[in-house]
Amino acid sequence: MSEKLPLEPPAIQIQGLSYSYGSGQTVLADVTLSVARGERLALVGPSGAGKSTLLMHLNGLLPDRLPRDSERASVVVGGVPVRKSTVSEVRRVVGFVFQDPDDQLFCPTVREDVAFGPLNLGLSRDEVLRRISRSLDQVGLAGFENRSTLQLSTGERKRVCLAGVLACDPEVLVLD
Ligand code: ADP
User: Fold this and answer.
1) Which of 27, 44, 176 gets mutated to test ligand 1 (max ligand atoms within 8 A of its CB)?
2) ∠23-17-73 over CA atoms, to 5°?
3) What is the pTM of this model?
């Protein structure tokens, strides 16, 4: 039986978002975008176009420019405005898989790395173990729990990153 997703609020809503790094060059200019729940969207563009920069706005990875409570939020995820005060809530809504697994993996074993997110959510040990097994299965790495993350291929390392994010059951999955 297929589960009907509620249509409102949209998964991602971006309105009039502009951004430039310290160098002053404008990377994002007045971006407006809405992604419905259940929708899959691919952002396509040449290297340096600003794709990663846009995605990093979805879970507050560029803290220098996060709006305060009194300021309008240009980015809203799952109904939560992305602001300084909402970053931890936003990061529960949005699971972010980095382009480079070296930016994401930091534990000695696959099990510890995948467990990190669910443990931070305060889940019970049994539930964390269930999530590890489920998410490794989802990415085709069942049985890799005890492997060292340093002794995996780049593709496997990327899949461990994805498993770690899936294990947190995010509403929105962002894949850079
Ligand atoms: P894409 O993901 O489409 O390849 P990026 O969002 O990574 O593009 O980069 C967009 C532009 O911002 C590029 O010109 C890049 O050089 C610049 N840029 C990215 N990160 C930084 C940074 N930390 N500081 C200064 N400029 C940056």
Assistant:
1) 27
2) 115
3) 0.91
Q: Produce one character per residue of 14-53: b if its CB has 16 or more CB atoms within 10 Å, e if not.
A: beebebeeeeeeebbeebeeebeeeeeeeeeeeeeebbeb
* DSSP label at residue 2: P
Mean pLDDT of the chain: 94
Q: Could you tell me the two tokens for 70?
A: 């009194």
Counting other chains too, the contacts that 84-87 makes at CB distance below 8 Å and 24 or more residues apart are: 86/60, 87/59, 87/60, 87/63
Q: Which two tokens stand for residue 23?
A: 């160098």
* Each residue's pLDDT tens digit, 1-36: 456 666 789 999 999 999 999 888 899 999 999 999
- Which residue minimizes the CA distance to atom 18 of ligand 1? 21
pLDDT, position 168: 97
The two structure tokens encoding residue 34: 């809405």
**Torsion 151-131-121-68 (CA) sign:** positive
Q: Is 48 close to ligand 1, i.e. is its CB under 6 Å away?
A: yes
- Do β-strands 75-77 and 12-20 pair in parallel, antiparallel, or remain unpaired? antiparallel
Distance 53 CA to ligand 1 centre (A): 6
Is beta strand 172-175 parallel, antiparallel or unpaired with respect to 94-97?
parallel
